[in-house]
Amino acid sequence: QVQLVESGGGLVQAGGSLRLSCAASGSISSFNPMGWHRQAPGKERELVATITSGGIKYADSVKGRFTISRDNAKNTAYLQMNSLKPEDTAVYYCYTVAPPTFWGRGTQVTVSS
Hints:
Layout (H helix, E strand, L loop, with lengths): L2 E5 L2 E4 L4 E8 L8 E6 L6 E7 L2 E4 L7 E6 L4 E6 L8 E8 L3 E3 L3 E6 L1
Parallel strand pairs: 2-11
Antiparallel strand pairs: 1-3, 3-8, 4-5, 4-9, 5-6, 7-8, 9-10, 9-11
C-alpha cells in the first residue's frame, strides 16, 4: 500500500510563507503523478497543483504564488506557498496516482488577516 504523510502546515500571517511536504512510501515511482488539493470551510475540495512527467499545473487562484516540486530520491513532494492570503486557509491534502489514487490525511494551513 502507498502511504502519504503531509507536514509543514501551521498558522501564518497574510503575506507570509509556508512549505508543505508530502513523504510517500510504498510502491511508487517518479512516473506516478503527485499533487495537492485543499478544502476550505464551506467549500468543495479543489485542485491546487499537480506535477507529472508531462509538466506542472496550478489553480488560477495560486498561480504565481505557489510552487510544486518533487524530490524523487526522497519520494517527497513539496508545495512552497508564498504571499499567502486568508483565502488560502484550508486543509491541504497530498495525493499520488499509482493507480489508484492515494491520499494523505491532510495538514491545516491557517492564514490570518
